[in-house]
Amino acid sequence: MTPSKLKFPNYWDEGFKGLCASDPILAKIAIQNKEIKLYSHRNVFLTLVRAIVSQQISSQAAEKISYKLLFLISLESCTLTRELNKVIDASTFLRSKSCFKRLGISQKKYTTMNTVAHHLNNNKDYWKNLDNFSDVEILSELTNIKGIGVWTGQMFLIFHLMRPNVLPETDFGLLKSIMKNYSLPDILSAKQQLPKLKEKWAPWNTIATWYLWCDIDPRPFIY
Known about the structure:
This protein is an all-alpha fold. The chain has helices at residues 12-22, 24-32, 44-54, 59-81, 90-95, 107-122, 124-128, 135-143, 150-159, 172-181, 187-201, 205-216. It is globular, with a radius of gyration of 18 Å.
């Protein structure tokens, strides 16, 4: 697979300073994890596939399944095309005959991936011009695809587009980290604190989310 050049957010340093100034608890976490930064591998399809795989399972399990899936698709593509450096994209996936069930991928998730692949192939102009659309508009487009919910769309906003102010309010890892770091008794209490924290962290909720993930997983899974 030919890797794309990684892209890093140009707002990170500004947001880091802003969060540290507004929230002492988050400042401590961010400083401890300062060297671990969010990045995008700039492949729309891979981000969506990894997010779909990750639905309702742990990030560790999702990472293992994703690596196996992408390796098999890449290997199959090389066999069919005799090209060693083939980027995995929607077209590559649609040509694949790999047995996804053996990898622990449900029929529902496979169907969603297949639908996404067709959507990408049939709406290329839209996907090439994502920067022209707001977070709300992109979430609306994604959640119109059967099998894509708000959380999956938010992972896309964070990991592909690296939008600066995304807070995935249903993400268990985020809630677990908030509960731990803000000395809350349970996940419900963490959910209740979200509106207040979201306002405090704005317009850098993505950075806040990233560092809270880093606190419970020193090597966060990149979608």
